[in-house]
Amino acid sequence: MVLAALYALGVAALLAPFAFLADWDLRDLTDGLIPFAILLGVAFVVLAVARRIGFVLLWLVLVGLWVWLLVPGVSDLSTLLYSGIVHPFKFAFWSVLAAPLFIMTTVFADAGTRTRVGRWSLPPTYIIAVLWIMLVSAGFILRDYGHPHFPWVSISAAITLATLGWLLWAPMPAVIAAVAVRAFWRRSRGHELPDRGGLTSA
Using one digit for the tens of pLDDT, what is the confidence trace for 69-83? Predict the structure, then answer.
C-alpha cells in the first residue's frame, strides 16, 4: 500500500495550499467526497493485487468524481449549459485529487510515442501536464476576474466563458485519464519495474 500512502501525501500536500489560494475551508472542500474516498480506497486495495485493473479503477473513480462535480443541482438544460462558467475552477479542485496519481504515472509509466512540438519531441504525458497547468492557472484567473457578478463581465462574455468551460475544461479529465491509462498500459506490456511485481503486475 506504499502507492496509496504516496497518493494520500500528495493530495494532502496540494489540498492545503489550494484551500489557502481558494480561500475555502478544508471542510467545505471535502464535503460530499466521502463516497469517492471509499471508492479510491477500494481501488488501491485492488491495485495491490491486480495492478492494471486497480490503476484503471482509480482513474474511473476520478472521472466519476468529475462528472459528479459537473452537474450538482442542475434542474434544466439552460442551467446546465450556463454552469460551464464554473468548470475552470472546479477543474482546479479536481486536479488536487488527480495530479498525484498522474505524477506517479509520469514517473513510473512508459513515456510512449513522442509528439513533435516545434523543436521539441515530447511524450504525451508531458504535453498533457503543460496543458493541465495552463488550464488550472486559467481557472484561478477566471475565478478572480471572470465571474458574472463582476461589472466588467457582460452577458455575452459570460456565455462565451460558459461555452469554453464545456469545450475546454469539461472533457479534460477524461483526456488526462485516457493518456495516463495508455501510458501505464504500455509500460505494463513492456518491462516490469524493479520492485517486487512492480506497478505493472496484473
Answer: 887 766 677 777 888
